[in-house]
Write a structure and sequence with these properties.
It is built from twelve helices and 14 strands. The protein has two domains: 127 residues, NAD(P)-binding Rossmann-like Domain (Rossmann fold), CATH 3.40.50; 162 residues, Dihydrodipicolinate Reductase, domain 2 (2-Layer Sandwich), CATH 3.30.360. With 345 residues, it is α/β, with parallel strands linked by helices. Helix content is 31%, strand content 21%.
Length: 345
C-alpha cells in the first residue's frame, strides 16, 4: 500500500483529495494537516459528510518533520508561496510530492516571479519539478519525484488548445480563452465576490487582464509550440458550485472543417482515458469525475475554430489529477481510484 499524507486538508481541493484517497484501493491515508485553527479536530468534525468515514485528526505544518517520514507520497494543497518552504525538506525524506499549488508549475524562474512575486529558495528543486498534465507529459511524470499539479483553469484551457497549438493550425498571437468557473474554484475562505447574495443569479468577469493562470497557460502552450504563444484569458465566476467551461477561439492559418478537426482531436488524445471528444460539452457531464470533455467547431466563413472544454475544477482541475499523477509515479494504472461516473442529472 502507498502511504499518503495531505497538507491543506481543510480546503475544498484538500477534502476532495481526502475523499478520493480514502476510496483508492492502493492507498492508505496516514495523516492530514490543516490550518492552525483546525489543530486536533477530526476531519468528520470539519466536514460532516465524512462522519463514520474519516476520523483522522488534523495536524499542522509544525508537525511536518515527524509526519513526512511516515508517507511515501505527500500532497500539498496550499496558497502559493508556502509549499516552497517545505518541499525541499520533504523530498530529503524520500517521499514523492504532488503540489496542487502554484509553486512548482513553472520551469522558468523569471516567469514564476513575474506572476507570483515570489523568489524560490531552492533553485535545484524548482528546476526538477515536472508539470503534471498527464495527457501531455506522461513520460516525464512517471520518472518524477516532484509534480507541479496544474491549475484548474489551465487544465481546461491547455487541453482544449493543445492540438491546435502543437500542430501549428492557429495564429499563436491571437488565441482567446473565455473561462467560466463555479465559485468553489475561489477556495473556502470568505470573499465578497463569492458570498451568496453577490453570486446567486449573477455572472461576472474578474482579473480581466492579469489573472495569474494566464501566465501558466501561455508558458505551457509556448513549450508545445516551440515559440511564443500569447493568449487573451478572461475568467468568470458563475452561480454554480463546481465545474469549469472554457471557450477557446483561434484564427485558422488555413481553411478547415469541423469533422476534420474533431478527428484530429480524437487522434491527438487517443489512449488518454480521461479526455473525451464529442460535440458541445457541458460541466454537468463531468461533475465529480476526472474527465475533460472537449468539443470542436469551425466557422468556415470566418476561418475561426471554437473549442469548448469542460472539467470539474476540484477533480480534474485539482485532486483527481493529483491522484492521476501519483498513480503514474508509482507505476499504477492512471485510472486507479478515479473510475467514478459523473452524477446526472
Amino acid at each position: 500500500m502507498i502511504k499518503a499524507g495531505v497538507i491543506g486538508a481543510g480546503g475544498y481541493a484538500g477534502v476532495n483529495l481526502v475523499s478520493l484517497l480514502l476510496r483508492h484501493p492502493e492507498v492508505e491515508l496516514k495523516w492530514v494537516v490543516s490550518e492552525e485553527a483546525h489543530k486536533g479536530k477530526k476531519m468528520s468534525e470539519l466536514f460532516p459528510h465524512l462522519t463514520d468515514i474519516c476520523d483522522l485528526a488534523c495536524g499542522t505544518l509544525d508537525d511536518m518533520a515527524k509526519l513526512a517520514k511516515q508517507a511515501d507520497v505527500i500532497f500539498l494543497a496550499l496558497p502559493h508561496g508556502i509549499a516552497l518552504n517545505y518541499v525541499p525538506d520533504i523530498l530529503k525524506t524520500g517521499a514523492k510530492v504532488v503540489d496542487l499549488g502554484a509553486d512548482y508549475r513553472f520551469n522558468d524562474e523569471a516567469v514564476f516571479k513575474k506572476w507570483y512575486k515570489v523568489e524560490h529558495k531552492d533553485k535545484e528543486v524548482f528546476k526538477s519539478a515536472v508539470f503534471g498534465l498527464p495527457e501531455l507529459f506522461k513520460d516525464q511524470i512517471k520518472k518524477a519525484k516532484l509534480i507541479g499539479n496544474p491549475g484548474c483553469y489551465p487544465t481546461a484551457s491547455i487541453l482544449g488548445a493543445a492540438p491546435l497549438i502543437k500542430q501549428g493550425l492557429v495564429d499563436p498571437s491571437a488565441v482567446m480563452i473565455d473561462a467560466k468557473s463555479g465559485v468553489s474554484g475561489a477556495g473556502r475562505g470568505v470573499k465578497l465576490i463569492t458570498l451568496y447574495c453577490e453570486r446567486n443569479d449573477g455572472t461576472m468577469a474578474y482579473n480581466v487582464t492579469g489573472h495569474r493562470h494566464m501566465g501558466e497557460v501561455d508558458h505551457i502552450l509556448s513549450r508545445l509550440a516551440g515559440g511564443p504563444v500569447a493568449t487573451t484569458f478572461v475568467p468568470h465566476l458563475v452561480p454554480q458550485t463546481r465545474g469549469i467551461l472554457t471557450t477557446i477561439y483561434g484564427k485558422l492559418k488555413k481553411p478547415a472543417k469541423t469533422a476534420g478537426l474533431m478527428e484530429l482531436y480524437k487522434k491527438f488524445y487517443k489512449g488518454q482515458p480521461f479526455v473525451r471528444v464529442y460535440p458541445t460539452p457541458c460541466t454537468k457531464s463531468v461533475w465529480f469525475t476526472n474527465y475533460c470533455d472537449i468539443g470542436v467547431e469551425v466557422n468556415e466563413e470566418k476561418d475561426t475554430v471554437i473549442v469548448t472544454s469542460a472539467i470539474d475544477n476540484l477533480i480534474k482541475g485539482a485532486s483527481g489529477q493529483a491522484i492521476q499523477n501519483m498513480n503514474l509515479i508509482f507505476g499504477l494504472d492512471e485510472t486507479k481510484g478515479l473510475e467514478q461516473i459523473g452524477v446526472f442529472p
